[in-house]
Amino acid sequence: MTQDTHEQLEQSLLACSACHLRQDAIGPTSYNGTPYSPLAIIGEGPGGVEDEYGVPLVGPSGQLLDKALTSVGVTRDKIYTTNIIKCRPRNNRTPTVEEGLFCALTWLDKELALVQPKIIIALGSVALKYLLSPNARITKDRGRWFTTKYGIPAIATYHPAYLLRLTGKDLVKGKWEVYYDLKAAVEKCAELAPDYLLKSPEPPDLLALYSRRREERQTTKRL
Ligand code: URA
Q: What residue stretches are annotated with the Uracil-DNA glycosylase-like domain (predicted)?
């Protein structure tokens, strides 16, 4: 299948079985939001809820991400959300750098070539390592702008799954850091795409939006 448009690319991606990760997942997951956004968020890889629905960041991490985005005036329908890894690794383990490299070279690079966002937010270590360097460290490198190989400016922040594991003072500190990183991204986006509205009046109900895909995937799983 040709992959000239974002839709064609998505169809090819949803049929991918290019590596071993496909065997343990219900199927590859694609993106959510809009491919016409100047702002892209890149997460790690699908968890259980994402594998069920076929889209990234709609489970517990996605819900925390939504709250953080609301605090800086962003709704998910106005941005492009995707992952480095498209298939859920068995038992939700963290994908290796090599798995990230293989999947992102196969899919993410093509997605971004079509979407051409003006700003990228890397969520967590796996995204940071692919977009900046395998030696990058999220604790050291979050909150600092860097230029990706696509020539697109990017900033990394903590992954919501990491925040969900913190408590007490560490949690408060982590949440503020994420807030400042997201705010910096939104401000830069406003500079580079001044006419684009990052917030719609009604935040989307992502689970309702993709319930049909979920049903289809349940059927495939049973076959
Ligand atoms: N974490 C991610 O990085 N992406 C998802 O889709 C779900 C959890």
A: 30-183
